[in-house]
Design brief:
single chain, 148 residues, alpha+beta, eight-stranded mixed beta sheet, two-stranded antiparallel sheet, 2 helices, 28% helix
Length: 148
């Protein structure tokens, strides 16, 4: 073993570092070559993989987010109507828009009792600023709503 500063190096490692190559202008040891060529390549590949994965995850997430256009509308005269299955703040439920004179009302029927709204929630003051997030009321309250 040979010493080089504070580190002990094996003979093989030392011989590896002594190997040099000439690029036409300068001499470099092989360790320098590996660091300058493969390090940026590794960073590039890592960033490329991360971008690809984040796009796939984002596509899947956006597909599961509810928009107002997806919600079925119940007719004014009543009768059978479609109910869309969703998760509201983590609670499984059904959702639809009840057609009314003047303004429509959104209705959410929870499968289990909700700690705040118990079995159901309804309001005519609602809008979707972005997919998966419904704002309601007059105080800026929000609900996260995702398709099941």
């Amino acid at each position: 073993m040979e010493t080089n500063g504070y580190m002990l190096k094996s003979r093989v490692h030392y011989e590896y570092e002594k190997r040099i190559f000439y690029d036409g202008r300068n001499y470099y040891n092989i360790a320098h070559f590996v660091k300058t060529i493969f390090s940026p390549l590794l960073v590039f590949l890592t960033l490329l993989i991360r971008k690809h994965l984040s796009v796939k995850i984002m596509e899947k997430t956006v597909k599961n987010m509810l928009t107002e256009e997806m919600i079925p509308i119940a007719p004014m005269e009543g009768g059978d109507h479609e109910i869309l299955r969703v998760s509201v703040d983590g609670y499984n439920s059904g959702i639809f828009i009840a057609k009314r004179w003047g303004s429509d009302k959104i209705v959410i029927k929870f499968d289990e009792l909700h700690p705040i709204w118990e079995g159901a929630f309804a309001t005519k003051y609602f809008f979707f600023e972005k997919p998966g997030e419904m704002s309601w009321g007059h105080n800026g309250e929000k609900m996260a709503i995702h398709l099941l």
